[in-house]
């Protein structure tokens, strides 16, 4: 199996994993899960869902790469960059469309799939490159920092549309009412 096919499979795997990740906090509501999984229906919490799905699928991706004996480099750099870039890529596509159409579940899924596809193309090129080997440990720190920021913003969100949960009409982990 080529690296290209592994990345195609990863695109669909991450997309499907997003659905499971979306409901993990609802199933297991606790402080630890609130850092990694969405706690409400705000746009920001869905960015956490996307980042976490990419990081979790990274474990599966790593096992597939090992089992198929595919050469790869920069694995942690790959996870950090693709996870981190998924947030602005999604927002750049989603926010203008959302401002015109409002909430549209089918469009949301299409944008999610497009975002994941773009990040997996980036992932392909990062894994093929030998340039970034020294950044693997820095990338691990980057992943931890992203989760620290996500955790802080879950409990202390900015009071703007990005953090607003339109379903419960609250911010963050449903501690800040409008």
Any overview of this molecule?
This protein is mainly α and 178 residues long. The protein is 71% helix and 3% strand. The chain has helices at residues 3-27, 31-36, 43-67, 75-101, 105-128, 136-155, and strands at residues 164-165, 170-171, 176-177. A three-stranded antiparallel beta sheet has the order 1-2-3, with no helix packed on it. Strand 2 and strand 3 form a beta hairpin. Helix 4 runs antiparallel to helix 5. The mean pLDDT is 90.
Write the SSE topology.
Blueprint (H helix, E strand, L loop, with lengths): L2 H25 L3 H6 L6 H25 L7 H27 L3 H24 L7 H20 L8 E2 L4 E2 L4 E2 L1
Antiparallel strand pairs: 1-2, 2-3
Helix pairs in contact: 1-3, 1-5, 3-4, 4-5, 4-6
The mean pLDDT is: 90
Instruction: Walk across the major sheet and give the strand order.
Output: 1-2-3
The shape is globular
Helical segment count: 6
Strand percent estimate: under 5%
Order of helices and strands: HHHHHHEEE
Could you give the distance between the termini? 52 Å
Radius of gyration: 17 Å
> What is the number of domains?
1
* Poorly predicted parts: none
Question: What are the key terms here?
Answer:
178 residues; mainly alpha; 3-stranded antiparallel β-sheet
Please sum up the structure shown.
This protein has 178 residues and is mainly α. It has helices at residues 3-27, 31-36, 43-67, 75-101, 105-128, 136-155, and strands spanning 164-165, 170-171, 176-177. It has one domain (3-177).
């Amino acid at each position: 199996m080529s690296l290209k096919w592994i990345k195609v499979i990863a695109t669909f795997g991450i997309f499907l994993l997003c659905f499971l990740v979306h409901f993990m906090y609802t199933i297991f509501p606790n402080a630890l899960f609130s850092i990694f999984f969405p706690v409400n229906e705000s746009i920001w919490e869905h960015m956490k869902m996307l980042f976490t799905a990419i990081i979790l699928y990274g474990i599966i991706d790593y096992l597939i790469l090992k089992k198929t004996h595919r050469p790869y480099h920069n694995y942690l750099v790959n996870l950090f960059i693709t996870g981190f870039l998924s947030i602005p890529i999604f927002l750049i596509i989603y926010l203008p469309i959302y401002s015109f159409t409002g909430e549209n579940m089918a469009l949301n899924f299409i944008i999610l799939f497009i975002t994941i596809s773009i990040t997996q193309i980036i992932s392909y090129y990062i894994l093929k490159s030998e340039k970034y080997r020294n950044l693997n440990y820095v990338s691990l720190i980057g992943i931890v920092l992203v989760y620290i920021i996500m955790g802080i913003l879950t409990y202390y969100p900015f009071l703007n549309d990005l953090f607003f949960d339109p379903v419960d009409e609250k911010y963050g982990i449903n501690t800040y009412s409008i």
